[in-house]
Amino acid sequence: MMGIQADWMVTHIGQQAPVWFDVFEYIFAVVFTWELVMRILVYNIKFFRMPDWKWNIFDSVVVGLQVFDIITTLAIGTGGNGNLNFMRLVRLLRLLRILRLMRVLRFVQELRSMVMSIAASLKSLMWTIILLAFLMYGVGVCLIQMVADKGLDEPRIFEIAPDIKTYYGSLVEALVSLFAGITGGIDWNDLLEPLENQIGPWLAALFVLYIAFAVLAMMNVVTGIFVESALQSTRADEEKEVRQQLQELFKHVDASRDGFVCWEDAKRHLEKPDMMRCFESLGFNISEAYGLFKLLDTEQSGNIECEELLEGCLRLRGPANAIDVATLQWLWQQFFLGILHEFPLVKFV
């Protein structure tokens, strides 16, 4: 609705928006506020302690901004023109309601993974900008110093070569030009040509070295770092999602609510769609459920603690890592040492 309203207002500059825009705005405000109040009444204090408490606070802030926007708009509308600066602030607050689109992230795992990957790369982005700034600053200072030295011999250099004034007239302009040269904003040959013609052809080697290092070396390394950060964030988000699903699933399996799961309780839930999807996400077949239960039941008691079952399933998810292989080697070593201790006359070939 905000997009439709913004499109109508920009295509009808100077005209008052129709009343039905406000009607729909009030309807949406009532629906969202009622939904938020019902959730608070149902969960009470758990509303701010449940696993999705961050999303609950986010929803509360968005709904609060919408209610504040409506109240201030009605107050200003009934009191004349009001304070112009305050009205502009209210219009800016309306833009924050676009954050409602973030609610979609709760239900679409692929979209949430993409956003989480981008957020995880922000730290790498900050250091990339700092490294790029150091590189451009060093090259930019060298270039404008050469232009300044050339200006001592030819004070009319900016009149003879206007491109030098455009691209290297100051340190800030030089930094912007160097950044545009490696990001495609300006063809780097256009940046090099006035330097080569007015200062010297030898400067082409320095400039080409800068372009080659920035584009071929630094950018490729930075791309690899971003990809690695995105992959780590995706794996962490998937593991968190699987953990939450397993926790909710085991709560339903634990019929006695004593924190333990027995095979009989687990067997009754094997044919349910939630259990089958859970096994597929872990990389197991539903026919392997009994073997998995026996494998995790180290005490052979027929009951496994929910937390132990959860950690065991997550540990068996995916390929074995180095610590698993090392642990297996140590256990086999202890096994053979125990046999040699019990049967000292036995020799192994």
UniProtKB/TrEMBL annotation:
Record membrane topology: Multi-pass membrane protein
Annotated keywords: Membrane, Transmembrane, Transmembrane helix
Transmembrane segments: 26-45, 57-77, 125-148, 202-227
Chief location category: membrane
InterPro entries, per the entry: EF-hand-dom_pair, EF_hand_dom, Ion_trans_dom, VGCC_Ca_Na, Volt_channel_dom_sf
Compartment(s) where it occurs, according to its Swiss-Prot or TrEMBL record: Membrane
Protein name in the entry: Voltage-dependent T-type calcium channel subunit alpha-1H (Voltage-gated calcium channel subunit alpha Cav3.2)
Record organism: Durusdinium trenchii
